[in-house]
Known about the structure:
This protein has 313 residues and is of the alpha+beta class. It has eleven helices and twelve strands.
Amino acid sequence: MPGTLAWLAVTPFAAWAVTRVGGLERGSFPEQIMTATPYAAAGSLLPVLLSVLSKKKAVTAVAVATSVALGFSVLPRAFGDTQVASGRPFTVLTANLFFGHGDADTVVDLVRRHRPDILNTQELTPGAVADLDAAGLKELMPYRVLQDEWSAAGSGIYSSHPITQLDGLFQVIGHNMPAVRLSLPEGPQVEIVDVHTLPPLGRQVTQWTEGLRALPPGPSSGPFRILAGDFNASLDHAEMRRLIARGYHDAGDTTGNGLTPTWPANKRIPAMITIDHVLADLRVSVLGYHVYDVPGTDHRAVLTRLSLPVAGH
């Protein structure tokens, strides 16, 4: 009986581990539950205990292998890499405003305190544009490319430096995803994409997949490229890992903050999963990463401090 109980406990975790390691999740429901992999990794320790108590070697071996596989999938996100910081500092702030309800004063206060070079916004409505400017954003970040709408589709990029809208950089699949090029006084050029894919809900899972695949790769030469926003994907999604493998590193993962949740914020339950990201191409160093609560929205804002290589460094 103890052996049977141990097998019943370990089987779903073993299936989860095979799916996660092999990137085998397909369809809306598997894609959604895959974001819970960190919790599955923690839960997989229970079958290990039950299998040891059962004194059955086979189930114990499977339970231990399962826990190790899930642990290796998750734990590296808690350990950061030392990054080179010899270039030009560059700070990115991204915030999903939840149909424009995110508190404008809080967002502008983050801009005022941290002085980001770029602010990416998702679910930006015309009302939110007015509220942000009334709170002082117009003076702090006068340059912008806005595609605001009275829906979740609205997005907008704000900058403290002159920017030029980039058309045709990639095929936009999902919500509005403006892209801009920024030329810094010190010389480096940076391309910024304001990411907001559709969530993998129901039939939208196909567009979610296509939207992630359509995002531009990280270049090895020319302007630096940064993707920042609400990806509706975690590092436990195979599609997200494939995107990163095309020439990026994830700022949260790189700094050891990859398990810091960003959604759902300001709810009765705490934020549980990480779907808001800043991806920088591999030439860019990641120096710092922080998340902040913004009243009125179900996403936490993400602030990332980067370093751009410059000539002579």
